[in-house]
Design a protein that fits this description.
Elements lengths: L1 H10 L4 E5 L3 H12 L3 E6 L3 H6 L10 E3 L2 H9 L5 H4 L1 E9 L5 E13 H9 L7 E3 L3 E6 L4 E5 L4 E4 L1 E4 L6 H6 L6 E13 L5 H7 L2 E7 L2 E8 L12 E9 L4 H6 L19 H14 L2 H9 L4 E7 L6 E2 L2 E3 L14 H18 L4 H29 L15
Parallel strand pairs: 1-2, 1-10, 2-6, 4-12, 10-17
Antiparallel strand pairs: 3-5, 4-5, 7-8, 8-9, 11-14, 11-15, 12-13, 13-14, 16-17
């Protein structure tokens, strides 16, 4: 990667890049731009203390994900790791009925990893002195020549390029586009992670090396193996990642589900340890009614499930002068696409490529970069909606299913 860095340094002054948001998208952009010689700093609003006090730590931000081609490429080109060492291979898919019978199997090798595993792999190679936690950006101003970023503590920083990678509730997006708001899709994903060694042996064997699906009335459940909490890949040391999509109407019923122990209504995510016990118990009853026995077992075994309401978000533009949006700050796509992380990785890789080819000309690079990213985001958003509709998710076809929690 040194060759690319020399190209920027020899042909122009090193662009100074500030990235707002230090999660997956921000880290990928930071690494890609650092590798081509940019002067990059990442500012994450969450402090070290807040992460330490959050139940589940970084794990509480997400669970399992599929290692797509874009992620493989990103890891390999930066010498971080290979797909085989960052994930667990699922050799086939199996579809089951309500009585646990397997009705369809197909060979579809895929590598499955966990959000926390991938995050820590990326974080450990980004320079610590350039990753700043507990730094809340509240706004910015820009001219033809630079962007001035304003922080909550009244500091200011100047840069040539500002990247909004601050997720679904992006401060940067809200300043740029007033009417681009996430739209609730009408259902949530109940999620959990279980240590493999806690499973009964016959259950562990049933799920081993497989991506398992169940389709019920206006609902879907799935599960697969991911690395252990410290990246373990040996049998017995991994984790089962499970997910149950369940319809919950917007308004009072969604607010009830998303109200935590402190009475706060969480909008976009309910972390581990914050779901109220009465809500969990009500869902355990519904699980016994609607889920196959193996999925009931996973729900029962999960001490602290967490909840992800499903949203759609798209923006008409991703570039605004010297400011751009990437990842979930621009497009939020449904998990059915298995493309949320790979989308952010692609945004980052292709931004670095355009900036390298432009010799560090930020405005020219962004102009070339935007059209393809918009097309990809709109395609994935539409695909996610189609896949959700196919399973009747968000459609209240029964008075008994997904209408009361």
């Amino acid at each position: 990667m040194q060759v690319k860095a020399d190209i920027i340094q020899k042909n122009s002054q090193r662009p100074r890049v500030l990235i707002v948001g230090g999660s997956m998208g921000g880290l990928c952009a930071g690494l890609a731009l650092h590798c081509i010689g940019c002067d990059v700093e990442i500012f994450e609003r969450t402090s070290y203390q807040e992460i330490a006090l959050t139940p589940g730590g970084m794990q509480s931000r997400g669970a399992g994900l599929v290692v797509q081609m874009e992620i493989n490429r990103f890891l390999a080109e930066r010498g971080i790791t290979t797909a085989e060492t960052v994930g667990v291979t699922s050799w086939k898919r199996q579809y089951i009925t309500g009585d646990n019978s397997i009705i369809w199997e197909e060979s579809t090798p895929q590598v499955m990893t966990s959000w926390d595993m991938l995050y820590h792999q990326l974080r450990k190679i980004f320079p610590d002195e350039r990753y700043h936690q507990g730094n809340n950006v509240i706004g910015f101003e820009q001219s033809d020549d630079c962007v001035v970023v304003h922080f909550e503590d009244e500091r200011e920083e100047k840069c040539d390029l500002l990247i909004g990678a601050d997720g679904i509730d992006s401060t940067i997006r809200q300043q740029l586009i007033l009417n681009a708001m996430p739209q609730y899709a009408g259902y949530v994903a109940w999620r959990g992670l279980i240590d493999e060694n806690l499973l009964l042996s016959d259950v562990a064997k049933f799920f081993a090396d497989k991506f398992t699906f169940f389709h019920g009335p206006s609902m879907q459940a799935l599960c697969y193996l991911v690395p252990g909490p410290n990246g373990e890949l040996d049998e017995g040391k991994r984790r089962i990642n499970w997910l149950w999509y369940f319809n919950v109407p917007d308004g009072e019923q969604l607010n009830t589900v998303m109200t935590n122990h402190q009475g706060q209504v969480r909008k976009f995510f309910m972390p581990q340890g914050e779901v109220r016990e009465e809500v969990v118990q009500q869902m355990r009853v519904l699980a016994k009614t609607y889920l196959p026995e193996v999925f009931q077992y996973l729900f029962e075994l999960t001490e602290k499930p967490f909840i992800q309401p499903i949203y759609d978000l798209s923006v008409p533009r991703m570039v605004f002068g010297r400011v751009c949006l990437i990842g979930d700050a621009a497009f939020v796509v449904r998990p059915h696409t298995a493309a949320g992380t790979s989308k952010a990785v692609t945004n980052a890789i292709e931004l670095a490529q355009e900036l390298q080819e432009s010799g560090g000309d930020v405005v020219a690079a962004l102009e070339k970069w935007e059209p393809i990213q918009l097309a990809m985001g709109n395609y994935l958003k539409a695909l996610g909606v189609t896949l959700g509709n196919r399973s009747r998710l968000g459609h209240y076809v029964s008075s008994k299913v997904g209408t009361r929690v």
